[in-house]
Amino acid sequence: xxxxxxxxxxxxxxxxxxxxxxxxxxxxxxxxxxxxxxxxxxxxxxxxxxxxxxxxxxxxxxxxxxxxxxxxxxxxxxxxxxxxxxxxxxxxxxxxxxxxxxxxxxxxxxxxxxxxxxxxxxxxxxxxxxxxxxxxxxxxxxxxxxxxxxxxxxxxxxxx
Length: 160
Description:
By secondary structure, the chain is mainly alpha-helical. It has helices at 13-34, 41-73, 80-106, 109-141, 144-157.
């Protein structure tokens, strides 16, 4: 097993969340590009790699949000509904990702294309809400101590 990559010490919990979003966008772009034409062996390799990313990194990232960030915000009347909606969106996105895996295994290229595009569109809206609404408000609400605790929880999830 490979040792975990060292974390840039200047990155805080919100920096980690935003970096995860950047990687997710990159992988979603790779996915939609892979399904935009004939789904040959190279495209299937890319799709398989992206599905593995979802099963590993996206699951961990969503745990960062649902187990580490959202519980710290539910007491805020303006943020609690946003957190609840985002958690529901995580469940929908997990279903889309699971369906993508089934379509991939079944070699159902039409369904694969539809689900890949649906997943990307869903995440585009979702990530915009987190970055434009939730994160800025949370960064103002949570003090340095809470942020340090968040970072420690997120690092623990990664075995650091």
